[in-house]
Specification:
216 residues, binds 6-O-phosphono-alpha-D-glucopyranose, HAD-like_SPP, metal-binding, binds magnesium ion, 8 helices, alpha/beta, beta-phosphoglucomutase activity, magnesium, 40% helix, Beta-phosphoglucomutase, 6-stranded parallel beta sheet
Length: 216
């Protein structure tokens, strides 16, 4: 096929963004500062380590390297507590239908996620086998908005970046797709994701013929 799709995971395919938020909020509470959902937008799409740095910046808290490592472990333990209970009911509305559409059109799709838990999550919700390839937090050294994760995704699809369409719910992810020279589709608040080439509130809003505007 002449085009391919790269999906972000958290907040696009599955509703895990809320679990990341709860786990980070628990840490902020323990450190004694407020961490709002608006603050949380800045962490979406961002690697675990970078998220912690941003969070500590918001709280104006300075901690030792050892302390940071402990925080990363405990955040992930809390997060794992949520995701190991996940099942296919937590696939976001419209996601499976969209994958079916792509399958019918013969358009390959890969995952392009910053998460080191991506494989586990996709297996929990029984979608792992459907992806043509997986690129996740274990494959990259530079976090979104660096385009690395999506450029590796394009390689897996065997396509040049301009033939790739990226679905993203994060500011950092839309930016990464744009820097990569790909078509960016923002899923979520239009104002927050105004840098995207296309915007939809959720995957159910994607028109049946959306992919026909791209040369297939
Ligand atoms: C995704 C999420 C981020 C999360 C990152 C790392 O990009 O949007 O909120 O921090 O993955 O996830 P991990 O599961 O490795 O902690
Ligand atoms: Mg996301």
């Amino acid at each position: 096929n002449t085009i391919g799709v790269i999906f972000d995971l958290d907040g696009v395919i599955v509703d895990t963004a809320k679990y990341h938020y709860l786990a980070w909020k628990k840490l902020a509470d323990a450190l004694g500062f407020e961490f709002t959902e608006a603050n949380n937008e800045l962490l979406k799409g961002v690697s675990r380590v970078r998220s912690l740095e941003i969070l500590l910046g918001i709280g104006k808290v300075t901690v030792s390297e050892t302390e940071k490592q402990k925080m990363l472990i405990s955040k992930n333990e809390d997060y794992l507590g949520y995701i190991t209970k996940m099942n296919a009911n937590e696939i976001l509305p419209g996601a499976e239908k969209l994958l079916n559409t792509l399958d019918a059109l013969g358009i390959h799709y890969v995952l392009g996620s910053a998460s080191k838990n991506a494989e586990l999550i996709l297996k929990q919700v029984n979608l792992y086998h459907r992806f043509y390839g997986i690129v996740d937090g274990n494959d990259v050294s530079k976090a979104k908005p660096d385009p690395e994760v999506f450029l590796i995704g394009a390689k897996k699809l065997n396509l040049s970046p301009e033939k790739c369409i990226v679905f993203e719910d994060a500011i950092a992810g839309v930016e990464a797709a744009n820097i990569a020279g790909m078509t960016s589709v923002g899923i979520g608040d239009k104002e927050t994701l105004k840098a995207a080439d296309f915007n939809f509130n959720n995957l159910t809003e994607i028109p049946e013929d959306f992919f026909s505007k791209f040369s297939i």
